[in-house]
Design goal:
Number of strands: 2
Distance between the termini: 53 Å
Strand order of the largest sheet: 1-2
Largest sheet: 2 strands, parallel
Helix content: 25-40%
Number of helices: 6
Oligomer: single chain
Structural class: mainly alpha
């Protein structure tokens, strides 16, 4: 009998503890090999303290999920977006749920001429646009 069949039979008779599952060699834990680079400060010290690298991760895609839209989720990215655009970096918004309100962005210090809005037709286009933004040396976020 192979090891997998033996483990399956043991599991069927009594479920393993959470420690047993998490310590199994077949379980991959992303944090074990994650490389943490200095992040882009969010503008919120308490949030920065909880993020690896002390801010928004660089060279990665960040998605902000909210229970519903319009509850201030964009506000989280505003200070960083303003700092990046003022430093001459591009901020790319790919397929946002709503068209950004330019006067509000400008009021927060975002340089609108450094904001790139990409409207896509499907998920494949979203992924392609994200990849291009991540590869661009002038891209800040």
């Amino acid at each position: 009998m192979n090891a997998v069949a033996s483990e399956a039979r043991a599991f069927a008779s009594s479920p393993p503890s959470i420690e047993t599952v998490l310590n199994h060699p077949a379980i991959w834990r992303g944090g074990e090999c994650a490389r943490v680079t200095p992040g882009v400060a969010t503008g919120y010290a308490e949030l920065d303290a909880h993020l690896p690298g002390g801010g928004w991760p660089t060279g990665a895609i960040t998605e902000i999920y909210a229970e519903r839209t319009g509850v201030g989720e964009v506000e989280l990215a505003m200070p960083a977006a303003a700092r990046l655009t003022q430093a001459g970096r591009w901020v790319t918004l790919i397929a946002p749920l709503h068209v950004p309100y330019a006067p509000a962005l400008a009021a927060h210090g975002v340089r609108l001429e450094r904001l790139l809005l990409v409207q896509t037709r499907n998920t494949d286009d979203n992924l392609w646009a994200s990849e291009q933004a991540l590869r661009a040396a002038s891209s800040g976020a």
